[in-house]
Design brief:
229 residues; alpha+beta; Neutral Protease, domain 2; 3-stranded mixed β-sheet; globular
Length: 229
């Protein structure tokens, strides 16, 4: 988002210098000089300031996220939380789920530079593996896992809808989980969902969200089951 002359005199959250000319603003309201356009937290998407930490080369976390990266036990608790949340909505994910943490560079090699997680296929005899970026805060990890776990639910039930429906449904799940967590970072992830202009992930999410708001989650599940093969 471009912010022009009315913000002259405000300090940049990255270099702490007075902003002269155009600036950018992230979802949380942080302002940064235009030259810092690439300096986003690799977890939540905020601009990172002087207290950011480089976890591995090229992968920076903002001051908020760096304090909230869960360990292995914490990540597994997040899986359990999401599983329970979905079950309360009438959606039961039965498979055993295992996590594989990777760096952003490794994720780019395995899948894409934009990805924060994906489900490995086919599953092995023990269940499904979700490959996920290692340095994510609790809320952002929940955002990613809640999306990927709905892919697993679709695989369990042999549901194969068009891409926009598939990904929109998974993003709807992330949206609902973020609402339940309701921290500033979680609500920021919702803001990023709402801003997504991608015809598959963004438009698909808005289509499924509209159905949810009009008919409820049980009707969304029924709709998804219509794509069962």
């Amino acid at each position: 988002m471009n912010i022009r002359s009315l913000l002259l005199g405000h300090s940049c959250c990255i270099c702490d210098k007075i902003i002269l000319g155009e600036a950018y603003q992230d979802w949380s309201g942080n302002l940064a000089c235009k030259k810092h356009n690439a300096c986003f937290c690799s977890s939540c998407g905020r601009y990172y300031g002087s207290k950011a930490k480089e976890m591995v080369p090229g992968e920076w976390l903002c001051e908020t996220c760096v304090k909230n990266v869960p360990d292995k036990a914490g990540a597994e608790k997040t899986v359990s939380y999401i599983r329970t949340f979905y079950k309360q909505q009438g959606l039961d994910i039965k498979s055993h789920i295992m996590l594989k943490g990777v760096t952003a560079a490794q994720m780019a090699n395995l899948h894409s530079a934009q990805a924060r997680g994906f489900v490995e296929l086919p599953p092995d005899t023990d269940g499904y593996h979700i490959v996920v970026r290692r340095y994510l805060s609790r809320a952002v990890l929940a955002m990613v896992l809640s999306h990927e776990m709905l892919h697993i639910w679709q695989y369990e039930h042999q549901i194969y809808p068009p891409d926009a429906i598939c990904e929109g449904f998974c993003n709807l799940g992330s949206y609902l989980v973020m609402l339940s967590i309701h921290t500033p970072t979680a609500m920021g992830q919702i803001e990023l969902l709402n801003r997504d202009t991608d015809i598959v992930y963004g438009d698909g999410f808005r289509k499924m969200k509209e159905m949810y708001e009009q008919k409820g989650f049980s009707s969304v599940i029924t709709y998804m089951q219509s794509y069962k093969r």
